[in-house]
Design brief:
By secondary structure, the protein is an all-alpha fold. It has 17 helices and no strands. Helix 2 runs parallel beside helix 14, helix 3 runs antiparallel to helix 4 and helix 6 packs antiparallel against helix 12. The radius of gyration is 25 Å and the shape is globular. The two termini are 26 Å apart.
Length: 467
């Protein structure tokens, strides 16, 4: 009966969600001034509810449900069902608001694609919950599992893009001549934040995967740096036309990235072919920070913010060099049990902060903040607060992942288990336990093959093992 009710609610939810794409609300644009993207009216209460609800749903609920799905936790379905219900309500609210009016925006267009992606994801999830394994359904089930996993893991990235579009649309930014600069800031700022998240993942749960690849982390970092440098070299200047403003700085920054990236790839292998740590990615980040700290700007506040952004990047780069060369001494981890040294959290955190600073330093944003009388100190403190929040949430998700994939490792000796003190909320483990646990790291992230659902629940995470 419980299974029937669950399936019935899922089907009903899918039917209700499918109607969202057929109901379009025309935003009246008669009060939008010529050349502007928004009207002068303030954002009303309904639109604020839409903003907060969608941020909570796509920024917190869906990422949490994604992690629960990776570890095959039975709370995955309830969490995702709740998130889908809130997303549908938020979608309707976005078409019911009064007050501020908006012209055509990327946020409005992308919303339909995002909801379509959500509907497909829900449909695949319902198919998997029906446990159809015979005949044709059994043959396609494997591909449905893969598709469901890929869409689920892509959802946080797509949601981030939509939230960026939402912030731009709410203020009417990034139109006309401002578009290019907006793209540069939002793409590069998001890239720094994405790199910070990947660094956090590799720091906490990714070492076993790295060992299986036979590569050092700097190898992958250097490959991305070289590729990105090649793109920047040929896109920052309109070739065939005169060099203007900061073209030379942007282009030469791309050149040094691919030069340094190739060097980092070479230095990431030992003489015997084994993986080796190196300082190149950290040095590239530090040099980029130095360049951005002296980047000329038109608004004084913008110059100050770019200076802080550059210093933050320099701090991230130098902290990474110190971590690899002096804290880890070219080793993969600081201790035998894989527990990170407290200093190792600094490089990714500085990258979170640098990413948010660059996201928040477009010309239009700087003009708005400057006219509002906000000093660069207050603005930077707010941006760093955002960085702390995202850093915290990322660590919480990785903790949720790690406690649900850890294998059962009962203590060998009850007396020993009683006497040993807890360290950072965990009991000390012997080397065998560590090796066993490491074999489970990132398994869910790298594969979506079906397996039995974990009987663990969020309410039972205080237990040391999953029974």
């Amino acid at each position: 009966m419980a299974t029937f009710n669950t399936r019935g609610s899922l089907v009903a939810l899918l039917i209700a969600a499918s109607s969202t794409l057929s109901l379009a609300h025309e935003h009246h644009e008669d009060e939008i001034p010529e050349g502007e993207g928004i009207s002068a009216e303030p954002i009303d209460a309904i639109l604020w509810i839409h903003i907060l609800m969608q941020m909570f749903t796509f920024g917190i609920i869906f990422p949490t449900g994604m992690v629960l799905g990776i570890v095959k936790n039975r709370w995955h379905v309830p969490v995702q069902v709740a998130g889908t219900a809130l997303a549908i309500v938020g979608y309707f609210l976005g078409h019911m608001h009064k007050g501020r009016q908006f012209g055509p925006t990327a946020h409005a267009s992308f919303a339909n694609w995002l909801m379509l992606m959500l509907l497909v994801q829900v449909g695949l999830g319902i198919f998997l919950r029906l446990h159809l394994t015979k005949g044709f359904y059994g043959k396609v089930r494997r591909f449905v599992v893969i598709g469901h996993g890929v869409l689920g893991k892509a959802m946080p990235v797509v949601s981030w893009v939509q939230m960026i579009f939402g912030g731009i649309a709410s203020l009417g930014y990034c139109r006309g001549d401002h578009l290019g600069q907006c793209l540069a800031h939002f793409i590069m700022g998001s890239a720094f934040i994405g790199y910070a998240i990947i660094m956090t993942i590799m720091l906490l749960v990714g070492q076993a995967w790295l060992r299986r690849t036979g590569r050092s982390q700097e190898f992958f970092d250097s490959v991305v740096i070289a590729a990105w440098g090649c793109v920047n070299t040929f896109t920052e200047h309109r070739w065939g036309k005169a060099w203007v403003e900061n073209d030379i700085e942007h282009t030469t920054m791309g050149v040094i990235w691919w030069c340094a990236g190739l060097t980092g790839v070479w230095l990431s292998r030992r003489q015997d072919g084994g993986p080796k740590r190196n300082f190149i990615p950290g040095m590239v980040i530090a040099i980029t920070g130095w360049g951005m700290s002296a980047h000329p700007q038109h608004v004084p506040l913008s110059s100050m913010i770019h200076t802080v952004f550059g210093y933050t990047l320099m701090a991230a780069g130098f902290a990474r060099i110190i971590e690899i060369s002096f804290v880890l001494r070219d080793q993969a981890t600081a201790s035998d049990d894989g527990e990170p040294n407290s200093f190792q959290y600094l490089p990714p955190f500085f990258l979170y902060a640098a990413g948010f600073l660059f996201l928040s330093a477009t010309e239009e944003q700087m003009k708005f903040v400057s006219e509002a009388g906000v000093t660069h100190v207050g603005y930077v403190l707010v941006i760093y607060s955002f960085a702390f929040i995202l850093f915290l949430f990322t660590n919480m998700l990785l903790h949720l992942y790690s406690v649900n994939v850890a294998p059962p490792t009962p203590p060998k000796d009850t007396e020993q288990a009683t006497r040993l003190p807890r360290m950072n909320g965990h009991r000390p483990t012997d080397s065998r336990q560590i090796r066993d646990a490491e074999e489970f790291e990132l398994e869910g992230l790298m594969s979506d093959d079906e397996g039995p659902e974990s009987p663990s629940t969020l309410g039972r995470n205080n237990h040391k093992t999953v029974e």
